[in-house]
Structures are given as C-alpha cells and as structure tokens.
C-alpha cells in the first residue's frame, strides 16, 4: 500500500520512519510546508518528497497520515474524506469544537475512516491497567491520579498555536481516564498557574495545571500537568480500589527520588521526552492504522473518542477562566450538535 504523510516535524518524522520500515507499506510520499525538511526526511528513508498536498493526492496514495500543524487538520481530514481515503490524524482534530464537528460530520457523511493519535492506548502499562480495572482485581475504583510533566517548555512560538495546556497536554490524560476506567467524566474543577516563564502569560496559557474530575459512577480523579519538570519526562497514572492498587509509568527511568532514608534515588538516565517514553506505543499505533486500512481490526480510536476528550479540555478551560466547577453537559449544550449526529451528546 502507498501512504501519504503530511507534516515532517518531530512527530511526523517519527511516523515516517515507522512507516518506511513497515512490511506492508510499499511506498511513502511525504510533504511539508518546509519543503527542504520534507526532502531531508525522504532522502533519509528512501521515500518520495512531494511539493505539496496536491502532489500527495496525485501520487495515488491509499491512505493519509496527518502530522501537520493543528490549524490544518480539519481541512485535510475533510479533503481526505471526500477523496475516500482513510486518515490517521495526530490529536487534536482542531483547537475548537466547531472545527472538530466539521471534520467529524464530513467523515460520517462520506462513510470515511478516521483514526486519532492517542498513542497511550497502545502503551503496555496503560493496557495492563485497563485490564486490571475490568477484571475486578482492584475492586470498586474510588480514586485515580494522572500526571503528565514535561522536562522543559516548548518554544514560545508554539504556545499560541497549541490550544493551551489542557487541550494540548492534559487531553492525553483525559483520554486515558475514560479509556482505562470505562467511565465518563461528568464535572471538572480546574486551576492553573502561569508563574513560570513569561511566555506563558504572553500566550494566555498556563505552565502548570491541576484538575479535579468526577466520573459518572462517583469515582474521583485528579489530573495534573506542568511544562517545567526539570527532573525529566514523567507520565504516570495511579488507580486505587477497595481491594487493590496499580501504577502506570513507574520504572527505572521515572524521574523520582524517594525522601525516605536508603530508598530510591533519581535514575541517571530519566526519560527525556514523549518520543522516547512512548516509542513502542507509537509503533503499535501506526501498525494498527495499517491493519485498520486493510480491514483487519476495528478502529481503536475514532473521532468520537477525540471529541469526548476535547469536551473535557474545553470544560477545564472554562472552569479555570471562571473559577467554578463546570459540568460536561454545559459544554455539550453549547457545541451546536445537530440532531441525529453520531457525535456524542
């Protein structure tokens, strides 16, 4: 099969490398707004560099992987859906609910295929935690704690385009809360701090955030994130039930030092970032897309899943801004979901 890849930045280049080695991908066509960057990736991998998205379509590709700037996602998804091409798109579909709905409706109306890039669904630890919850070994779940801590802030130019800490970063934790527990979030209360580098205040964003979330069965969850965790990249989830407890992300590269005498010291080689920590998950995710295109498995993360995670992020932004609890139903009511739409209401 021939795959077109749009966007050869950090994550796009990683996907290109994975696809170039995949035994069922016969040809890879890449493009980027930075043509020289796309050419370098193509030369390194033996792929074809296209001058733009028009040339990707003209190359007769069988599917499209979108790893471009978020602002281009909706239009690219719509174009691929109208061309009858299955799409893998990095999260988010868009930085707002109207753009997300536009893409999802086009996919629905054309009978298209859209898989979203929530790679933690393919991580061995999160999958084991999901199995533990469903097996009942933890008993009644009462508390969930999730955290994502980046070792250093992104470039200042990235912040105004990112959608903010809740949509760009914590949205992964929101997806995992739903996927691991099998429950829906009904209400959030979110706070944030911009006390770090001045570029966050300039962008109207926060560098650190914390959220209290209530699930539909009464389970309480917290999710926290920061862009300024100098100890290293730290992504974990803890799930506590009446008969057991399990932790995701605690290994010999987790950047933690125990304060207890004679206990664990910080690892000499902590995780430097998300690509290293989740490399096997990214590979499994892309393999799942290839198999999805071949009709060998159901969609592991369709557009509706991305929609639900974005609803939680939107509720968090409103909660932080207005300093109050926000129910997810309030966000849905303002999203203009048309009658009969498959997008969850």
Could you characterize what this model shows?
The protein has 345 residues and is an alpha/beta fold. It folds into two domains: 2-119 and 283-301, Rossmann fold; 121-277 and 311-327, Dihydrodipicolinate Reductase, domain 2, CATH 3.30.360. The chain contains 13 helices and 13 strands. The strands form two sheets. A seven-stranded mixed sheet has the order 12-11-7-10-9-8-13.
**CATH homologous superfamily name of the largest domain?**
Dihydrodipicolinate Reductase, domain 2
pLDDT < 50 runs, ≥5 residues: 338-345
CATH third-tier fold name of the largest domain:
Dihydrodipicolinate Reductase, domain 2
User: What's the CATH first level of the largest domain?
Assistant: Alpha Beta
């Amino acid at each position: 099969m021939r795959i077109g890849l749009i966007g050869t930045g950090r994550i796009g280049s990683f996907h290109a490398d994975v696809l170039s080695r995949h035994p069922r991908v016969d040809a890879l066509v890449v493009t980027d707004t930075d043509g020289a960057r796309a050419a370098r990736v193509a030369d390194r991998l033996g792929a074809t560099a296209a001058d733009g998205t028009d040339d990707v379509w003209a190359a007769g590709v069988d599917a499209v992987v979108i790893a471009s700037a978020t602002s281009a996602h909706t239009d690219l998804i719509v174009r691929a859906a109208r061309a009858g091409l299955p799409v893998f798109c990095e999260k988010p579909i868009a930085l707002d609910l109207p753009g997300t709905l536009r893409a999802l409706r086009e996919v629905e109306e054309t009978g298209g295929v859209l898989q979203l890039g929530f790679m933690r669904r393919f991580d061995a630890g999160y999958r084991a935690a999901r199995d533990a919850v469903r097996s009942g070994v933890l008993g009644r779940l009462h508390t969930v704690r999730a955290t994502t801590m980046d070792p250093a802030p992104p470039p200042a130019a990235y912040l105004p385009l990112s959608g903010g800490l809740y949509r760009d970063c914590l949205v992964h934790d929101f997806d995992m809360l739903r996927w691991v527990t099998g429950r829906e979030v009904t209400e959030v209360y979110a706070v944030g701090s911009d006390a770090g580098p001045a570029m966050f205040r300039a962008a109207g964003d926060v560098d650190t955030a914390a959220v209290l979330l209530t699930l539909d069965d009464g389970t309480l969850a917290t999710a926290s994130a920061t862009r300024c965790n100098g100890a290293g990249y730290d992504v974990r989830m803890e799930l506590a039930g009446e008969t057991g407890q399990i932790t995701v992300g605690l290994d010999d590269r987790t950047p933690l030092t125990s304060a207890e005498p004679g206990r664990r010291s910080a690892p000499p080689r902590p995780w430097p970032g998300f690509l290293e920590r989740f490399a096997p998950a990214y590979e499994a995710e892309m393999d799942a897309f290839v198999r999805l295109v071949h009709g060998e498995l159901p969609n592991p993360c369709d557009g509706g899943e991305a929609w639900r995670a974005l609803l939680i992020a939107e509720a968090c932004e409103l909660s932080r801004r207005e300093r109050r609890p926000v129910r997810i139903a309030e966000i849905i009511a303002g999203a203009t979901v048309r009658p009969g739409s498959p997008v969850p209401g």
